[in-house]
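Let's do one together. I've listed all components of the complex below, 837 residues spread over two lines.
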Amino acid sequence: MGEARRFTGDVAELEIEAGNVMQLFRKLGERFPELAPVLEDGFAVAIDGEMFEDSLLQPIKPDAEVILVPKIAGG
Amino acid sequence: MPDDIKLDKELKVVGHRNVRPDGMDKVTGRAKYGADLILPGMLYGRVLRSPHAHAKIKSIDTSAAEALPGVKAVVTGKDFPDQPKSKPPYGPMIQDAWDATRNIIAREKVFYDGHCVAAVAATSDSIAKQALKLIKVDYQILPHVIDPIEAMQPDAPILHEDQFTLGVEGATKPSNVFRIMKAAKGDVDKGFAEADLIIERDFKTKAVHQGYIEPHACVGNASEDGNVEVWTSTQGHFVSRNQLANLLGLPVGKIRLTSSEIGGGFGGKIPMYGEPLAVRLSQKANRPVKIVMTRDETFRSTGPTSGSHVWMKIGVKNDGRIVAADAKLYYEAGAFKGAGIAAAIGCMFSEYDLENIRIEGYDIVSNRPKVAAYRAPGVPMAAFAVEGVINQIAKKLKIDPVDIRLKNAAKQGTVNVSGIKYGPIGFIELLEKVKAHPHYNTKLEKNQGRGFAAGYWMHAGGMSCASVNIQDDGTVTLIEGNPDIGGSRASMAAMAAEELGIPFEKVRPIIADTSSLGFTFLTAGSRTTYATGMAVVEATRHAIKICCERAAAVWGVTPEQVKWEDGHAKPASANVGDFAPLSLSELAKKAPMMGGPIAGHSEINATGQGPAIGGHLVDVEVDPETGFVKLLRFTVFQDVGRAISPDYVEGQLQGGAIQGLGWALNEEYIYNDKGQLVNAGFLDYRMPVASDVPMIGTVLIEEPNPNHPYGVRGVGETPIVPPQAAVANAVENAIGIQMSELPMSPPKILRAIAADRLKAAE
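Okay, and this is what the predicted structure of the assembly comes out as:
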């Protein structure tokens, strides 16, 4: 969870059932209310190592590893 | 996307050296840049800037300026709605609207020399300048701080009394440190315990400007019905439109931004400066208003990149395998938060396959202009440290500098510190090409040295739209939404022509304004050829699908029985029937009577962008009497995925290398004791010119990105990551002293040589 840990009481890893990124963000937000308002604007996700940004409908397969990564812009 | 990756077939347009469609207008002077628009009744805008690095604004009296004949409008911070602060952890560019509105025009305080305090619009430029002198600002001067380490000290002047450090539990005192970001992988302490050699160093770099030749320029034109038109030199007119709507409290649909041609940006033309001022002045004056910055204003008030302090510690086994890497980054953000620490953390070790990494990044405000992105923002400073220490390790262990990188190179399946797992990636092939290159094997003479360094950038995807209109005669208008900075029109036209099977010259690419196409994200993050290129391919395939449907109707077969090949609809197999192929021109000519115009469009949010790794090889000669560094040879190697337009890919590689050379050897912001910038011009801020550099050689490694129809990775930012370290490593190779501070200007090199001689004599 990296940068998100400040909103999770230092929880770094957890298991969540979610079929896509939107469901994942909703369930994370329910569990960590302080995280909810910042997920969509602040984080991309790496699903099994592949980056997705602003992709709420991106499917997540069962047993996938998802990492929250701070969004980054280029020049 | 993609279902038909064209990686192996012979390509007729993509990968060829096509002449850029905008080239003729640019060399003849016909191209229209930011300052070139003149409208009837247009006024000239000028900006009053703070001479102080840090001061409270007690009052502003604009009455005398407003009374001057010819002055039509004056604005101050009070003419703009205040904005709420954003919530952490913020978006990628930390576009906190509270900060943005204060950076555009000061409200309670000025935070840096050059900060905008007021703006006027007048019937002539000279009247506007005269009016600025009549504005009376009563300042209460406050102590200032420039250096990020000094800004972190407990007794440092505080810029923002309500800023408490994110990442520090229970912080109760305001701080100039906006946040501390951390990232880790593996067990760093265990890695260091297993190391045979540990090297630890400090590095410093100075703030440098992007140095685009065209200063910021725009025209704002507000009409009585509430509509707003803006003409501006920008890297992203759709993003600017949305920000402008937010900052001025206007509906997005009422604003139309048109991007002019752009004379360089490199990240520095992502933020807005003059546009909101021009629009507000225009609203007050009911006339169009043009604002063109001078070079002095561009230096003093627009975003340079961060100056930095970096602490680096790397542990290795005797065979050169890195077992632990630890770093702390202290980056200047300028007056408002937003230094590029997130990108630095995500990229700095990412060309290597490392098990144990720990990084801590500090985003620190100080009294200088808010930083803006600059090609791979934040990464070159960190790479300067990483590659400097790896070079030291190679020297100590007597391992070839390329071999030590081969030993640790990232490959397919490597997972970096952010958790990103790599697909195909060409770093090993790149390093092997370096070793085999004639440059690497050229003999060096006395006082000469050779340096190598690598660098990584991750690239962006994001939203892009495109339309392809097939005209009656079979020529094609391609509409996309990214300002063309580095030849993107040529690449877009090449991909559309390749798909259609027609000559490159038959496609005319147009960059649409914000009211003529769906939202398209910035020309930044090296994303345009990747993301907008995907939209162009998808839109073209949509048009081709319609062409095939029309041919099927003509022949009385199903669309699935028609294929598109070499610019013609053809029967998909001999079983379909014996029909003469129908060309694009023939189908386009019949279109009005066969269902109407043929057009394709695409609206996507691209993901799957591939990272790119580059390696720079430099030979220098150092004059031990003057400290002058002469560049002898420079070769850039980069995994570019696929070069759609090789000429412009090579141009990107050469341009990044030259900007990095300036950063390495000459460029720096110099402040006096009052916090005023004293070298705000190209005579005193020394950027490289053509006579300073040898021909920069390029070697393109093409390891295609499987997520793009033509294998594109993006190329524009990676080439500014390695050169600073490559030059420093070459200088060390020449004089035997590691230079850990940029720029390596002659006085610094002379001091280092003198100190080394003194030490040897003791």
